[in-house]
Amino acid sequence: MGKRKIIPLIFVFALMGIIAAQSAAVPAQEVDKTLSPYFFVNTDEPGIDRLPLKSTSVDVDISGVIADVKVTQVYKNEGRRPIEAVYLFPASTRAAVYGMKMTIGERTIVAKISERDEARRKYEAAKNAGRSASLLEQQRPNVFQMNVANILPSDIIKVELRYTELLIPVDRIYEFVYPTVVGPRYSDKRAGERNALEQWVENPYLREGEAPAESFNIDLSLNAGLPIDDIVCNSHKVDIGYNDLNSASIKLSATEKHASNRDFILKYRLAGREIESGILLYEGENENFFLAMLQPPERVKSSLIPPREYIFIVDVSGSMHGFPLDISKKLLKDLIGSLRSEDRFNLLLFAGGSSVMSEKSLPATKDNILKAIDIIERQRGGGGTNLLPALKKGLAMPGIEGSSRSIIIATDGYVTVEEEAFDLIRNSLGDANLFAFGIGSSVNRHLIEGMARVGMGQPFVIARPEEAAEKAEKFRNMIKTPVLTNIKVDFGKFKVFDVEPPGIPDLLADRPVIIFGKYRGKPKGIINFKGVTGEGLFNRNIALAGIKPIKAGVALRYLWVRHRIALLSDYNLLRPNDERIKEVTSLGLTYNLLTAYTSFLAIDSHKRLKNGKATIVKQPLPLPRGVSDYAVGRMSFSNQMFSAQHAIPSASKCLVRKKSAERKEGKEDLPVESELVSDSEDMNDIRIKTVAVTGKLAKQAALKVLKKGILKINLCYNKFSKKRSGAYKETIVVLSVDSSGRVINVRTESKDLGNSKLEGCIINNLKGLLFTPAKGVSRIKLTVIFSV
């Protein structure tokens, strides 16, 4: 499984400063502040416990390729007043959360799944009626929020949640990640809008280096089913005990009691010299589920690799100009240049239309490779983008029997992608492997990850030039060693349905093949796998008669529906559809699963708070290790829209949040705006003074996009600029935007920046912006202030 880091590139936020201009005569109002995190201040206010979460303990049971996880959170009110605890925490994007229960003293309340809005209404009603309750909501696919209402003084309330996830090896290494902390996030929503789905962003954080107050522990039991070659945990100190060749116990060291400021990452490798196969079964009350897997050998002999064919589909549209296209050229030259003489390849370029190097794939001879490299080198980037015709053309090319065909799409993701393109990728898995490679400083990750998911592959993204060599090498290693191709599965008398994926990709040296779905009746007969290796035909049978359904297999039920929900969500990102939302909601309710539209709710039947109102306490989160205070302190700035009439505030000033020292009895503590305070010299050094828009593009829509763009070009400035003297200059930057909202040209009207690398970085980042579509070509003229 690929690395699933919850924490984004937090340092981006460290460079945030004031983008919005504001009139000196009109102070910023509360409604104009953006939702953003703030620093926790443990005040001297008597009676309120501001750190109610006392411990988090995690028990992990890994059986084969399935991890079943139990998380227990313990809340205790050591104050003298009732509180409502709010705790934000992360999880893997692959996690299927299927259960929750709340324990108060001797009473245990099992949570029920409900539609999100209904669960929130019932929770608020229970809270107002004086009952203790707990509510678990999904804020993002990898961010959850727990609310625990009416924790009375001296109360101890335990909340236990259960989730499961599938572990898929990458580079022959299995990886289990338990994310521990949600890094600071920024929303461009205004606080005055009070969008319930964005309020979680406004959360307190501890200072840099300050240890979490709550304790943390994790115990892990590993039953691999095959001999374990190696176990490594570089994130934390652990004690590893081997029970036998196939199993081990891993415990967190006692010295890591407060080490919840970084993800827990355990990696292990299995031993095996041949292609292995296996199956897991689960019999439920109403449905039965199965999972079959082909595992590549530990070491791949060159003789095992069948003939290979690669079709490179490359985005050469306007937004790829500069760094993205340069990296695409380098990547393709490396990949094509390393082909064997018996391999075949083709090159297909797409923008508004598409062109192909040859009507059929060519042998990887020296002359053909040089011709392909010459075609790539001559590309400059321009025009609109449409992926579907290029994808259809690539898949329609005549293939070579017995060869492994791989299609590699290189794009920044800002392309027109219809639902039909996702359907085409899913339904073509038996004919070709598909890999999505995202390149650019502002890659559309949703699209890249969506294409990878429907293609049952791993997404690759290069966001910065310095990442190119490592990511390209990893990608090259993955696709260069197909072990088994043209895979066919015959289930015989085993009555299966709702099988995923609909087609079967090749077995690669660094990627197993996993097939899962449902079955009717009793498992019987034989499952037959056929395919082609470099050494000839492959044939493997799995007899079902001796295989018993296992209790741990209940996870297969949740994994199947989690995959289905993820696919529906990917399609919804392309084009929102109410019917898909209804289907996700129905799946969540039917399978008792946490989703964006369903939540877990547990309500105590006893009325416990008879008088007064509980104080809302947001559990402060530790900053992820390696993240500075700037990730929080510099994120809270005025959101008043800038205009041509308003001057930009000084670069040495920034709005930061602090907790009010004066609070009224029984009311929620809210962050308030502090005075303008001086900050250090590495604040935003490029700011927009004026904006003029000509054409059909609305100015307010342009400003919203530019507000994000200014953050990116300040990253360029901090990377490439020299030490600042404190003086300022102005320059003019002009953007041309086509009817689809894509930036087709960027030019500067002066050379005052005096730094070609800086100017190139800024231009490439601005070219990656995506504006609201409008008729014709619009022009945006910016007056930019920068320090020298």
- Poorly predicted regions are 1-35, 634-684
What is the percentage of strand-forming residues? 25-35%
By DSSP, the count of extended strands is 42
Number of distinct helices: 13
Describe this structure in words.
There is one protein chain. The protein contains 13 helices and 42 strands. Helix 3 (323-337) links the parallel strand 20 (308-315) and strand 21. The strands form 10 sheets. An 8-stranded mixed beta sheet has the order 6-5-10-3-2-13-16-15. Strands 20, 21, 22, 23, 24, 25 and 26 form a 7-stranded mixed beta sheet that branches. The longest helix has 22 residues, at 699-720. It has 788 residues and is an alpha+beta fold.
Give short descriptive properties of this protein:
13 helices, seven-stranded mixed β-sheet, eight-stranded mixed β-sheet, alpha+beta, globular, 788 residues
